[in-house]
């Protein structure tokens, strides 16, 4: 083996790999957060400052939670999950969001379940079950 040169592998292309896998989930989250905030910040001139100043402390707390809690923390957890287990496996629970939302509406808000919503929920569960089973058979999970 002496005298043989090992071929240097090229770094992964940003076109073929998730940015979080190349730069890390924290960097991907930071970049996404900044990219998402720029359009909102560019449009703040449309909101009269007296309306912002009149917002109660609770509203500012709620806005802060929405920005940091559900947006930044949620995106970071998603990027960590994708980096750890891959997008195929990490993406399956996303299909359950609507089902969980409808179930929460029924339990918490007393909403009625329509036949269309029930059939849609069953189809979502069937699709997730098929995808999960296929992943396990292929050895991806």
UniProtKB/TrEMBL annotation:
| Record SUPFAM superfamilies | Multidrug resistance efflux transporter EmrE
Coiled coil regions in record:
none
Keyword presence, Transmembrane:
yes
EamA domain location: 23-131
Q: Which UniProt keywords apply?
A: Membrane, Transmembrane, Transmembrane helix
- Claim: Transmembrane helix is one of the keywords in the record: yes
Q: Which domain of life is it from?
A: Bacteria
A Pfam family matched in the record: EamA
Could you tell me which InterPro entries the record lists for this protein? Answer: EamA_dom, EmrE-like
- List all membrane-crossing ranges: 27-47, 59-78, 90-109, 115-134
Family per UniProt?
A: Belongs to the EamA transporter family.
Protein name as catalogued: EamA domain-containing protein
Per the UniProt record, the source organism is Streptomyces cuspidosporus
């Amino acid at each position: 083996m002496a005298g043989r040169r090992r071929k240097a592998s090229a770094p992964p292309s940003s076109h073929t790999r998730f940015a979080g896998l190349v730069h890390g989930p924290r960097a991907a989250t930071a970049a996404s957060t900044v990219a998402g905030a720029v359009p909102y910040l560019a449009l703040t001139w449309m909101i009269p400052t007296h309306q912002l100043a009149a917002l109660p402390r609770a509203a500012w707390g709620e806005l802060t939670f929405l920005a940091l809690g559900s947006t930044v923390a949620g995106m970071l957890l998603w990027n960590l999950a994708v980096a750890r287990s891959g997008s195929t496996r990490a993406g399956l629970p996303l299909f359950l969001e609507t089902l969980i939302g409808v179930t929460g509406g029924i339990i918490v808000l007393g909403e009625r379940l329509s036949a269309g919503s029930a059939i849609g929920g069953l189809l979502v569960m069937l699709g997730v079950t098929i995808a999960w089973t296929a992943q396990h058979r292929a050895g991806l999970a």
